[in-house]
Amino acid sequence: MSQELLRLTGVSRQYGRGETAVSALAGIDLTIAAGEMVAVMGASGSGKSTLLTVAGGLTKPTSGEVVIDGQWISELSAKQLAVVRRRTLGFVFQDFNLIPALTALENVTLPLELDGWRARDSRRAGMDALASVELSDRAHRFPDDLSGGQQQRVAIARAVVGTRRLILADEPTGALDSQTGELVLRILRRRVDAGAGAGAVLVTHDARHAAWADRVVHLQDGRIVGQTSQGTAEEALLGADR
Ligand SMILES: Nc1ncnc2c1ncn2[C@@H]1O[C@H](COP(=O)(O)OP(=O)(O)OP(=O)(O)O)[C@@H](O)[C@H]1O
Ligand SMILES: [Mg+2]
């Protein structure tokens, strides 16, 4: 198991060509280690979502290299890349993106089923993941019967189920009220701290939410213009007590 979950080296991404070309990312160098949660902040259009989709192998960089858990993405076939996405990566979106016709448990185990897991094993892994987000008692509910915060926790469970370790979350608290958003972040934080080798990249507009991360990366016009390391929110709270 590699301690380095993600490495971007000199990553650029252009959309379009010629006069109308947009440079969404320009020379990004970024590394995420296991046990690390990194927040990405920046104005609308600064390239945050593009950064996540490139980091997750969903968008090809125009130049530069992406290495996910030791695998050079540019050297993988489409099929091999799909396997990396299913086994290593979990995406969490602003609007949860759960399948309404599937229960919470079925939503969580879907990537395992697609990967050919036996029903019993995927069920067990799915229940473990739901337990880690404190939703064991909602496993057989459908998304419509869950609150927004619960739906987002299901999405986090799906992002970490089985062997998935790199969580890429694009404004996962955007559709939640601030208290529910904090709860979702606390669960994400706990998951990264659990010692299972997980790491997370979290896009957020909210500085209070970014405070849950170990490091904040500031993007502007597709470039990293600043990085701040910080203690976890818990350490910050402890510090305030002293
Ligand atoms: N599919 C696309 N085709 C063309 N241009 C795109 C595409 N996706 C993004 N862009 C452009 O790339 C730049 C970065 O977009 P991106 O969505 O990564 O920004 P963002 O920081 O996530 O913004 P927001 O905070 O609004 O979500 C923007 O100028 C955007 O218009
Ligand atoms: Mg975006």
TrEMBL record:
GO molecular function, one term: ATP binding
InterPro entries the UniProt entry points to: AAA+_ATPase (IPR003593), ABC_transporter-like_ATP-bd (IPR003439), ABC_transporter-like_CS (IPR017871), ABC_transpr_LolD-like (IPR015854), MacB-like_ATP-bd (IPR017911), P-loop_NTPase (IPR027417)
Domain of life: Bacteria
UniProt keyword annotations, A-Z: ATP-binding, Nucleotide-binding, Transport
Pfam short name (any one): ABC_tran
Ranges where the ABC transporter domain occurs: 6-241
Name used for this protein in its record: ABC transporter ATP-binding protein
Species per Swiss-Prot/TrEMBL record: Cryobacterium algoricola
